[in-house]
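Structure first, sequence second, as always.
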């Protein structure tokens, strides 16, 4: 799909959702029409009570207006190749706020499509990150009841605070409205274009918490660390940094053997965070450490990689954590936001957090204490045969809920529509290692095998088998 058209389509549908009412003279209420955060709210509910558009009338919708992406209005020669558009427009008090993939922010009247203001942070002046196509996944709205701000982390490693009314940078925040996110990571001996913005930051109280997107492909053994930082929403001053790769003397440091914590990177939060505002807790879903499929240079469990980590929003203190994959070798990073849910189990109400993972497991915890709602068992898994590698001997298996996708692959899973097709499938599959979930990658050519089939697949097509090997 044409990316420009995709952005237009998203905005038109969003405008219809927030700009219509059963009586055209009656605007949708602030409560019903607002979408103040990427997930709707900080619990990541992704739910709207709007019900005017439904299955019966959807076919009757017509285009109300079109807004051209601000990326198409950049000066000649300054733009970069962009990925699919994945940001969610925000709607606050009847105004829509949207970002482009280059980080240009616009305020739009959702009833008419009129552009109210536009601000370009010119993040392209800092060069393109090494990832091929750029993408800004969203923006964050924040208010203390008086001041209102839009926060965005850009591809140029800028953290920006904009006045909602004017679209101008807040002069009291950082340096004329900007923070340099290439700083305050604890170490700087890495390629700066390996790190850029991930999902939208999250603002709780006066803490603006930001993750990052880090190049994590298999040809690199060192990358920037994915430490998570919090800045004061008013001043931009650094409040705290949580080291997702524990440093010397910190809890979990011993899980990085041979001082590998000094050079290992990634373990970042590239997807959306969640927060319990009443409890003052932010939940971090972390990614795989450097690199995705080889851990011989980072032996050990590698906390806090591929984990759900709960922090105090004011201090950054770790309250609890759960690692979903020990010593990751499959790129099973947590790619979805934690969902805060209120459930009843055996008659007892529980304020829970549910974390869906690429493993096809759903990990469910009491979101205050971190205690698992249902037992999670450490079960033996296959060892690695790669020289220098040491796969962790066990991995966590939730007993409930049941996996939502196939895990692992055997000959019984191969296509068998006809005897001839079944025979061909077995012949092809014989070139690969098949096995249960957490079967490690191999060295290409080992026992005449090309690679390991990994199911669920860890890449964008989650359900599709993925082949892993060491060349």
């Amino acid at each position: 799909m044409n990316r420009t058209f995709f952005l237009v389509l998203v905005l038109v549908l969003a405008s219809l959702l927030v700009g219509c009412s059963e009586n055209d003279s009656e605007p949708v209420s602030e409560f019903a029409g607002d979408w103040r955060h990427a997930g709707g709210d900080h619990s990541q509910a992704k739910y709207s009570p709007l019900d005017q558009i439904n299955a019966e009338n959807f076919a009757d919708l017509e285009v109300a207006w079109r807004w051209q992406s601000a990326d198409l209005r950049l000066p000649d020669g300054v733009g970069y190749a962009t990925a699919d558009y994945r940001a969610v427009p925000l709607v606050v008090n009847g105004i829509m706020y949207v970002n482009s993939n280059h980080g240009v922010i616009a305020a739009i009247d959702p009833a008419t499509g009129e552009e109210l203001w536009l601000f370009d942070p010119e993040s392209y002046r800092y060069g393109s990150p090494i990832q091929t196509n750029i993408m800004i996944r969203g923006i964050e709205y924040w208010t203390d009841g008086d001041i209102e701000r839009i926060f965005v982390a850009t591809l140029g490693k800028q953290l920006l605070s904009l006045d909602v009314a004017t679209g101008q940078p807040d002069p009291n925040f950082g340096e004329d409205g900007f923070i340099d996110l290439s700083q305050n990571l604890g170490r700087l001996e890495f390629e700066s274009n390996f790190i850029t913005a991930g999902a939208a930051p999250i603002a709780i109280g006066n803490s603006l918490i930001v993750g990052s997107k880090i190049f994590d492909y298999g040809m690199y053994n060192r990358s920037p660390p994915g430490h998570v930082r919090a800045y004061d929403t008013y001043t931009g001053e650094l409040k705290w940094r949580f080291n997702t790769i524990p440093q010397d003397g910190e809890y979990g440091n011993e899980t990085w053997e041979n001082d590998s914590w000094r050079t290992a990177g990634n373990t970042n939060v590239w997807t959306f965070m969640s927060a319990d505002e009443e409890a003052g807790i932010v939940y971090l879903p972390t990614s795989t450490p450097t690199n995705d499929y080889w851990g011989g240079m980072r032996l050990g469990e590698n906390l806090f990689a591929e984990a759900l980590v709960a922090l105090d929003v004011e201090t950054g203190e770790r309250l609890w954590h759960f690692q979903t994959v020990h010593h990751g070798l499959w790129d099973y990073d947590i790619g979805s936001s934690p969902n805060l849910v209120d459930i009843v189990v055996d008659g007892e109400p529980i304020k829970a957090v549910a974390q869906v993972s690429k493993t096809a497991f759903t990990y469910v915890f009491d979101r205050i204490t971190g205690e698992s709602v249902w037992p999670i068992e450490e079960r033996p898994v296959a060892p690695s045969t790669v020289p220098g590698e040491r796969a962790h001997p066990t991995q966590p298996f939730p007993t409930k809920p049941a996996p939502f996708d196939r895990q692992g692959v055997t000959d019984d899973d191969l296509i068998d529509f006809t005897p001839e097709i079944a025979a061909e499938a077995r012949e092809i599959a014989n070139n690969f290692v098949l096995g249960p979930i957490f079967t490690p990658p191999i060295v290409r050519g080992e026992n005449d095998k090309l690679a390991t089939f990994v199911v669920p697949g860890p890449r964008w097509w989650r359900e599709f088998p993925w082949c892993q090997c060491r060349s």
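Margin note: The radius of gyration is 23 Å.
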